[in-house]
């Protein structure tokens, strides 16, 4: 009988027939069906879970320590928490599957998961933030973790990625420092879920290698709209080996089908308070509504003979491999199609290791990866104990045979009286590489023991400048405002001075000047003395990291504002059009309950104006109806709804008197409302539909469809 996890893994596999062998995760099933009875953990049926056993005269008296049933209940509660992840504590996971399009990657790797198109590989993916604790808000400005466990017949492969393509540091030994610097400060445990504080910017100003990463995280990429709309990057340089033993360097990429979409900073701040679980709910809502998020999996390959052909070191995790130099090759796709059955056993206990690769995938001397390969397994022992890979969510779907024994919570019973190799019984013997055993690439190494990095590791600003120059004007403005927001929270003046002087001035004098206007931090005395910007022009081809915005309305959330007297047929038609486009619509009214249409047909609203705000929706639609529009115009909350949605660049659809209400709320004189039936004028310069009655339901949904650029 499989546990929920087993069912999830099997669900992902049986989603489409698969040749991948999925062993049964034989484990007790916890069936809490209605009417099921209650027991203790040692199986005794419980008669009363509401009263502690005590000696009483019928009124009162002392509770008895002997009450093993009540004691167990308290014991279990007292010991429910395990250490949260030291970073990436806040996360949300889902099950799914991975498949390759064909065997095109065969020339680089012998890994079946990357070359066998007949396979459907079950996966578990966990998205996360980095800085905040397990209970912190989703929409903070932060990196998003994007970790995927592939349950392959050759063992588990963990691709522990982020949504940004580079990292703060080059050498893993600096990780405790950067983590300490960004986490809440030691003297007051402040701030939660934010990098806007002295320590982070002090460290970053003194650690120039972080410049490129800071550009990314302070751009709109730092505040994603949804986990479903982020890219994923392995960041580090791994290696692939083909069946001829030839090795190449590789970077891994996830590109979202929905394109990359961000929140506005004002939105992110508000949603953090209005709905701290916004991304978590968004992922679960989409999957449960059949909008299964999909990513294309791509690889960038550098052959060994070309590894020195670049002005940066290809093992430097603070650098990208621009696509115009190293093309991105799509080879497969990931679909997430099942939410977890229970959060703790699956999402909280899932554990990843960058060192967990399958034959055909290997490591490079990337100093960050080398240290990661030590850290992950080490940290799992603290969180979950040495036998953490026996927890169902972490268990491989292939046989595990070795001489590891004992340790806390050992589940495996080895029916063998030998627990060593070599042994006289030839049990659990090593497997030669040509029979599937993991083969280590015979890399030649020479040199002397010393603590240093190569010369190319010392350049820190070219790609940061390239990134800044590649931004659209509004994206540059957002970046300047973001850094200004952060530094304005640093109350030690040396922090701002150093960061503007030493870092921003070396990335871009335009950027340094703009930030110093906002928060001080004087520019270098002689700007000409600053590193001559290498004129890193904005390079469209290095946009591989700006996933093409493939706008779509599918899975988007559309609010429909209504009050008594709204035009019922319009709302019905609009909801049908939106559903047909894969979007979700929600009725928001003056009360959560019945609202009467113009034909006195009552509809039940999903929320009331106070309960949910425009920030939780991608677009707003306001139908016609004189009385309904009057009510909305007289309500400060609904007037603010429209202004806030407009300020967040959202598509606003409106018809008839509804358009009048919108025009009045936005005080935009040039919105004309025509009333002639059939004649419609769609001025979607603001994404607002001003139009006559009836004849434009189609136009309305078309504008929504077209208005998707507005998202
Ligand atoms: Fe890390 C967790 C991603 C650098 C050490 N890391 C963690 C998670 C993600 C990443 C997505 C959460 C996994 C989960 O959902 O359970 N980390 C990255 C990326 C990095 C990176 C993309 C840069 C390329 N990490 C990094 C370094 C070190 C670590 C340099 C240490 C030397 N990371 C850890 C860790 C964590 C972790 C402390 C904490 C929780 C865990 O491992 O399971 O071992």
TrEMBL record:
Heme binds at residue 376. Belongs to the catalase family. The active site is at 88, 162. Its EC number is 1.11.1.6. Its cofactor is heme. Occurs in almost all aerobically respiring organisms and serves to protect cells from the toxic effects of hydrogen peroxide. Catalyzes the degradation of hydrogen peroxide (H(2)O(2)) generated by peroxisomal oxidases to water and oxygen, thereby protecting cells from the toxic effects of hydrogen peroxide. Residues 39-429 form the Catalase core domain. It comes from Lyophyllum shimeji. It catalyses: 2 H2O2 = O2 + 2 H2O. Gene3D superfamilies: 1.20.1370.20, 3.40.50.880, Catalase core domain. GO terms for biological process: hydrogen peroxide catabolic process; response to oxidative stress. SUPFAM superfamilies: Class I glutamine amidotransferase-like, Heme-dependent catalase-like. This is Catalase. GO terms for molecular function: catalase activity; heme binding; metal ion binding. PROSITE patterns: CATALASE_1, CATALASE_2, CATALASE_3. Keywords: Heme, Hydrogen peroxide, Iron, Metal-binding, Oxidoreductase, Peroxidase. One of its GO terms (cellular component) is cytosol.
């Amino acid at each position: 009988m499989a546990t929920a996890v087993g069912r999830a893994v099997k669900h992902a596999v049986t989603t489409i027939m698969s040749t991948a062998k999925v062993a049964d995760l034989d484990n007790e099933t916890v069936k809490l069906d209605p009417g099921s009875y209650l027991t203790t953990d040692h199986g005794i049926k419980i008669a009363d879970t509401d009263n502690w056993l005590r000696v009483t005269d019928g009124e009162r008296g002392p509770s008895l320590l002997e009450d093993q049933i009540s004691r167990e209940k308290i014991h279990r509660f007292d010991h429910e928490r395990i250490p949260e992840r030291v970073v990436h504590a806040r996360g949300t996971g889902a099950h799914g599957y991975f498949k390759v399009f064909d065997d095109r990657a065969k020339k680089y790797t012998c890994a079946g998961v990357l070359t066998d198109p007949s396979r459907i590989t079950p996966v578990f993916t966990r998205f996360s933030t980095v800085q905040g604790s397990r209970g912190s808000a989703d929409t903070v400005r932060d990196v998003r973790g994007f970790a995927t466990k592939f349950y392959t017949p050759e063992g588990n492969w963990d691709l522990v990625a982020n949504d940004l393509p580079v990292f703060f540091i080059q050498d893993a030994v600096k990780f405790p420092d950067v983590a300490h610097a960004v986490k809440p400060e030691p003297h007051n445990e402040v701030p939660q879920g934010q990098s806007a504080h002295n320590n982070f910017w002090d460290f970053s100003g003194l650690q120039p290698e972080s410049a490129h990463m800071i550009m990314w995280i302070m751009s709109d990429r730092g505040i994603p709209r949804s986990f479903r709309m982020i890219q994923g990057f392995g960041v580090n340089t791994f290696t692939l080996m083909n069946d001829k033993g030839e090795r190449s360097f590789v970077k891994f990429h996830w590109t979202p089908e929905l394109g990359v979409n961000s929140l506005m900073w004002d939105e992110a701040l508000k949603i953090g308070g209005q709905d701290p679980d916004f991304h978590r709910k968004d992922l679960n809502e989409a999957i449960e509504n059949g909008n299964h998020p999909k990513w294309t999996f791509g690889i960038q390959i550098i052959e060994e003979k070309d590894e020195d052909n670049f002005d940066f070191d290809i093992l430097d995790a603070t650098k990208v491999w621009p696509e115009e130099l190293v093309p991105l090759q799509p080879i497969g796709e990931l679909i997430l199609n099942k939410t977890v059955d229970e959060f703790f056993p699956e999402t909280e206990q899932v554990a990843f290791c960058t060192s967990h690769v399958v034959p055909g995938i290997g490591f490079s001397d990337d100093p960050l990866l080398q240290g990661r390969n030590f850290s992950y397994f080490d940290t799992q022992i603290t969180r979950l104990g040495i036998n953490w890979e026996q927890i169902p969510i972490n268990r491989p779907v292939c046989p595990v045979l070795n001489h590891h024994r004992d340790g806390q919570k050992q589940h495996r019973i080895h029916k063998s009286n030998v627990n060593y190799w070599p042994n006289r019984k030839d049990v659990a013997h090593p497997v030669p590489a040509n029979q599937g055993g993991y083969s280590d690439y015979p890399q030649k190494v020479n040199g002397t023991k010393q603590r240093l990095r190569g010369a190319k590791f010392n350049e820190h600003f070219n790609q940061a400048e390239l990134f800044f120059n590649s931004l659209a004007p509004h994206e540059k403005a957002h970046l300047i405002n973001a850094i200004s927001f952060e530094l304005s929270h640093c109350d030690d003046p040396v922090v701002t001075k150093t960061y503007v002087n030493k870092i921003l001035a070396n990335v871009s004098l335009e950027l340094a000047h703009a930030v110093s206007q906002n928060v001080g931090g004087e520019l270098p005395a002689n700007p000409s003395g600053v590193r001559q910007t290498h004129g890193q022009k904005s390079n469209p081809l290095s946009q591989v990291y700006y996933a093409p915005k493939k706008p779509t309305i599918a899975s988007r959330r559309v609010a429909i504002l209504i009050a008594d007297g709204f035009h019922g047929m319009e709302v019905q038609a609009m909801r049908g059009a939106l559903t047909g486009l894969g979007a979700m619509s929600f009725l928001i009214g003056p009360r959560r309950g019945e609202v009467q249409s113009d034909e006195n047909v009552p509809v039940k609203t999903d929320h009331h104006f106070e309960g949910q705000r425009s920030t939780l929706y991608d677009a707003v639609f306001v139908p016609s109806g004189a009385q309904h529009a009057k009510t909305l115009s007289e309500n400060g909350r609904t007037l603010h709804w429209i202004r806030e949605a407009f300020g967040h660049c959202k598509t606003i659809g409106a018809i008839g008197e509804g358009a009048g209400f919108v025009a009045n709320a936005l005080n935009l004189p040039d919105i004309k409302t025509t009333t002639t039936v059939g004649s419609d004028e769609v001025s979607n310069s603001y994404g607002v539909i001003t139009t006559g009655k009836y004849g434009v339901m189609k136009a309305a949904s078309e504008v929504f469809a077209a208005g998707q650029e507005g998202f």
